[in-house]
Amino acid sequence: MIYMYRIMLVDDEIVSQNIVQQYIATRLPGYQISAVLNNGWEALQAFRDSPADIMLVDIRMPVMDGLTLIEKLNEISNDYVPIIISSYGEFEYAKTAMKLGVAHYLLKPLDFKELTHALEAAAKTLEFKRIAYTSLTWQDDNQELYLTDVLKGKYPDRALAQADFSELDFPFSYDSCNGLYIRIDFMNTDVWMYGRDALLTAMTNLINLLYSPSYVLPVFRKQNCCNYLLIDPNRNPESFDELCAQVRQILKITIRIQLLFSFDSAENLRSISSGRQNRELTADMKSEEDLSDTDKTAIRASIEKAIAYMKEHYAQDLTRDSVAERIYMSGAHFSRCFKMVTNISYKDYLTEIRMQKAMELLKTNIRVADIAERVGYPNPNRFNINFRHYTSYTPSEYRTYVLKMI
Predict the structure, then answer these.
(1) Domains with residue ranges and CATH for the chain
(2) DSSP label at residue 31
(3) Which has more pLDDT, 131 or 347?
């Protein structure tokens, strides 16, 4: 089934509206006009109710002009592509449009070849964004930190490694998983427009699509390369030609892949990573920790912003990746930076915020189920379990006995 890109046409000229609608309806399968509006204010309200993929926007319109509309849309969504269609070619308009992220500025009367090219480019941009920003699996940050520590050789003892493994609910067993540790070099990242973290997320998603591993993790990054850990892929490829081809086709970049080593159990992974044969790899990984003072200050500032957001929005569904996105980090990188700054994981820190707030609310007469929802637990049972784990008491016990002793 072909995906239909939804286009919202915002133009106060009736003739222009009709021409564009007719051309797209008759000549461009895969695109559909979802709404036609006469000014920016109407379009803003319509977009909030039913977002479009592509916004075809005139500049000069009554009530709200097109550039103001795009500016306001950018505040509420990153999942659309704006295209300007205008009778005015003044440089100031074009310069402002570029600052707002408009890649195509088309002059009236429209050249249909240019319109087609702009829409096709918009479709590619949307596809890149979908791949780059859609997380196919959400992985526990404590699991990621554990595997990163294993690869850094921080578990010389099997008993400790296995004990920590058993507490993390991995989707594979310690003694019977298999996997690959690969290095991916990015050869021409200058053509990628969406940032380094988005590129790593896109690569993770493509690996998921091609090899369906039970776990995939970007564990170490340098300027133009990244190491990936794949656990239990559906097949062990003799070469990575297919992945390289897909990356060239979809992401428009060239990569080179090197198999660093394979393993047949988590214990084998630990043994390799802590052994002499992995000295060069762990030396590379340690360089990630060797940050300059400027880098450390920047990371700390970003994590402090994330913490402030968590403290304000703890009642919402705060996934790790959603918070990471607010400070322009990938989920995995955010986990490592968060642990570096706070010495605990994101998940544990968020739980602590919620539990402390719950303890305050339990001093009131608010029902336990309502308190659970107020601190971010729509499921009261999950709240009860976490509260007991945090305090050693159920919420009711805490309210009945503990508060009386305070």
Answers:
(1) 5-133 (3.40.50.2300), 141-288 (3.30.70.120), 293-343 (1.10.10), 350-405 (1.10.10.60)
(2) E
(3) 347
